[in-house]
């Protein structure tokens, strides 16, 4: 379990300081947590702060009760950054041996997984494609026997066939000894299918943290046929939180937060000839939650 | 984490670098031995025979110069995790205590360097010995009473070399460890050594005053004072003790008792002590300082100077040298000096154009340029006036 209290980090910049993580407090419990947020929301910085690869300006991070910089805590944490390191002239097996020096490692499992995804054992990793490198390092992350695993941009650049194996292995890993796995990815669909809980970051702050089952419960999607232009301001003025408004042809699609008088408000405002609720796609739910969180934070600011 | 395995893995990673160092050191040292005179020259003038022992010259400098260069370059590899964000992400997360990573890496690099230098050195000495054996046998004069170097001094010199090399490695490492980009580390290394040279020159000046050695034949104090910059730069460098040691060890190994004034020996001993203390200070400072935060890797660090600052620093160093030259030289040379000064100003301007990639500078660049130019001009005129005043 990873506990974060009042974590703060600002990067110096030539133009203006960037407050990448803003007094963030959160507990990452055993299971799979999906970390989502737009570019620059602070996801990678949060991972790096937890792993201790960058120094924090304030706050505390504990891993299973130990300070995150304690070597014992570090030994129980594996962080896979978006650009992982391995000596250039190594092949896949040598990279695994390299990582086994630093972390408890299941070599048998690694070899089994390597065969499963058909990655070459004895080819130098410099000749690997971006996706192959990503696969290799994910296999390493699955083979280290660390209780806490952070996977940054985990599924980016993977093909759909490999994705299934990887998804399977993430689920297997989560079942082992109550591991805490935190995954950030722009592949929202994968996050949605894997995660027990979803955390949304916006401007370095925790905008939302929900169980996966609760995601999208407060959202509704409507399709409407109207001649009157639909504006966000008109709906906000009537207490409706708007995630998205899209107009394709004469059909306007709205994603808004639930409201007891929503249909009445829409009928009164836009006199639609057609108004019907439609279900949200699974990956659409997280996107809409992110949009809502972003808007909420902006209003808050 | 298995620390022994980590060290083994690091050694494995270093093999190509150390093979390259071994080949470079061996090529320079062994080929110099091959070309050196191993026997004193014998002159026959009728019945009279004279021997020049100084022609037999064990080429000790041929091992120390390349090994010092290797010690200058190696810390860049040792601290590569500070200058590359991918390495920083990996090395800062491995389960080690704070400062343990730099200690392990530096000690591994240092011990491997010492081993390689020792291997090259002793194979070279064996080679030297074998050459002396074969050349004695081939010489009509030395056949019956063979001439050999005093090899016990080579053992002592080897120990001295290990210590000096270690100090040099750690001092260079200290400067390099200050940067979070390779260019910054290079800058710190150059500036650090220049500062040490100047500082060391100052200390040597004091020691020489105490021990009664005069470096300048001039009785003029102002001229003597100005000569110190040049003296410090060229003669009394950070490398002074090791170079002086070669001057002492070489004749000793060649069975010649060197004759030095007591004051000279005192100054050398004191300067060597000073050298050891600075080196030890750097080792302590480096071992106690923390690694910079990973986000700095590959970017200018908090304590790093921006690249735009570098041309000004180099301009100041060259300007000071010119100021010194103009102030000290004869009237005819002063004109040449001022011409050099103008050329320096123009070169400095074009250096800024090159770095800024354009002719339009910001106000603060012009202010820095004007300040450096004006400051150096002021110093030059002041020095010249002081010199003329003192001569009058």
Structure report:
The complex is a heterodimer of chains A (301) and B (392). Chain A is α/β, with parallel strands linked by helices. Chain A is built from 10 helices and 14 strands. Chain A has 2 domains: 212 residues, Rossmann fold; 61 residues, Alpha-Beta Plaits (2-Layer Sandwich). In chain A, strands 6-7-8-3-9-10 form a 6-stranded mixed sheet, sandwiched between helices. A 4-stranded antiparallel sheet of chain A has the order 2-1-4-5. The longest helix of chain A has 19 residues. The radius of gyration of chain A is 22 Å and the shape is globular. The mean pLDDT of chain A is 85. Chain B is mostly helical. Chain B has 2 domains: 283 residues, no CATH class; 83 residues. Chain B has 13 helices and 2 strands; from the N terminus they run H-E-E-H-H-H-H-H-H-H-H-H-H-H-H. The longest helix of chain B is centred in the first third of the chain and has 39 residues. At the A-B interface, helix 2 and helix 3 of A face helix 1 and helix 4 of B.
Write the layout of secondary structure elements.
The complex is a heterodimer of chains A (301) and B (392).
Chain A: E1 2-11, E2 18-28, E3 31-36, H1 43-51, E4 58-63, E5 66-67, H2 71-75, E6 77-80, H3 92-102, H4 107-116, H5 130-143, E7 148-151, H6 160-175, E8 180-184, H7 188-194, E9 197-202, E10 205-211, E11 219-225, H8 232-237, E12 242-248, E13 251-257, H9 262-270, E14 274-278, H10 282-300
Parallel strand pairs in A: 3-8, 3-9, 6-7, 7-8
Antiparallel strand pairs in A: 1-2, 1-4, 4-5, 9-10, 11-13, 11-14, 12-13
Helix pairs in contact in A: 4-5, 5-6, 7-10
Chain B: H1 3-35, E1 41-45, E2 48-52, H2 61-78, H3 80-83, H4 85-91, H5 100-138, H6 151-177, H7 182-211, H8 221-234, H9 240-253, H10 262-288, H11 310-328, H12 331-356, H13 363-391
Antiparallel strand pairs in B: 1-2
Helix pairs in contact in B: 1-2, 1-5, 2-5, 2-6, 5-6, 6-7, 6-9, 6-10, 7-8, 7-10, 8-11, 8-13, 9-10, 11-12, 11-13
